[in-house]
Design brief:
Layout lengths: L1 E6 L6 H17 L4 E3 L11 H5 L9 H13 L2 E9 L9 E7 L5 E6 L5 E3 L5 E3 L12 E3 L4 E4 L8 H9 L4 E3 L6 H19 L2 E4 L3 E3 L5 E3 L3 E3 L5 E4 L5 E6 L3 H9 L17
Parallel strand pairs: 1-2, 2-3, 9-10, 10-11
Antiparallel strand pairs: 1-16, 3-4, 4-5, 6-7, 8-9, 11-14, 12-13, 14-15
Helix pairs in contact: 1-3
């Protein structure tokens, strides 16, 4: 499988972001990619909640999702839309941070709402309260593609290995982790967490990231990664925007798992702890 990762600096104009993804879909196909993958918040990245409230749409109305579906069908290319923010039908009025897998006919094969939400105050003075705006997803999701069963996650999810345990128990062999990671946490944890997820599961990890200075004032880490089941980094896009390519030899999964059969050796762990 040949993957094309679009490392973006998404802004506050959904039409411009949609056009950028469509342009990269054409280029990815021309360079032999089977799938294009985008970061979290690919269609709209804005921490001004009042402005966002006037911009966000439902999935049925969202111009980014529609444009990406059209591009997938036009170019005969699978596209993983890392996530877009959407108005949702939640009773509490919170929005959804939703990821989509779109096939080469433009059909939505699966979607996933981010389960773990990032609420933190950083030493830099940055404060993040995702749960005040977004409602958490409730469902673990994997989807079959022509190449592999792929498991969904988004950004902060990568800190919670139980999610990946559930995905690999369900047969996922490629783990998707689109993100918009902050620079301080990115420098400290991005590579080590994603390599750990690949190693412990004997899976490929594809983590497409936002990068650089955004129109809403935030700065993101970049370093979109493709990691093989042994923990080797096949692609690191550093801090450049644009496309990066990686060829995934999926036979590598069986080879690694035969040497370190961690999934086969898993045991169910009781949540009851004996304290002595």
């Amino acid at each position: 499988m040949r993957a094309a990762l679009f490392q973006m600096t998404s802004g506050i104009d959904p039409a411009a972001n949609a056009a950028a993804i469509a342009k990269m879909a054409a280029r990815a196909k021309s360079e032999g990619a089977d799938m294009l993958l985008t970061p979290e918040m690919a269609g709209y990245l804005d921490r001004d909640r009042q402005r966002a409230a006037g911009t966000l749409k439902t999935a049925a109305e969202d111009i980014v999702l529609a444009a990406v579906r059209d591009a997938a069908a036009k170019h005969g290319l699978w596209i993983h839309l890392g996530s877009i923010p959407l108005k949702d039908e939640r009773a509490d009025g919170r929005w959804a941070n939703r990821s989509f897998m779109i096939d080469d006919k433009g059909q939505i094969r699966a979607h996933y709402d981010k389960i773990h939400l990032f609420d933190v105050d950083l030493a830099t003075g940055e404060s993040w309260r995702e749960s005040s705006v977004y409602g958490p997803g409730e469902q673990v999701v994997a989807v079959d593609t022509p190449w592999a069963r792929m498991g969904f996650s988004i950004c902060y999810d990568m800190r919670f290995p139980d999610l990946y345990r559930a995905l690999t128990n369900a047969g996922a062999t490629v783990l998707l982790a689109p993100a918009a990671f902050t620079v301080p946490t990115g420098r400290a944890h991005w590579h080590v967490l994603l390599r750990a997820r690949a190693i412990e599961a004997g899976c490929f990890v594809i983590a497409t990231a936002q990068v650089g200075h955004h129109a809403d004032g935030r700065v993101t880490y970049g370093h979109s990664l493709v990691i093989d089941p042994w923990g080797e980094v096949l692609l690191d896009m550093k801090e450049e925007t644009g496309l990066g390519f990686a060829n995934l030899d999926l036979s590598r999964i069986e080879d690694v798992r035969s040497r370190v059969p961690a999934i086969a050796n898993r045991r169910k762990i009781s949540e009851e702890v004996s304290l002595t």
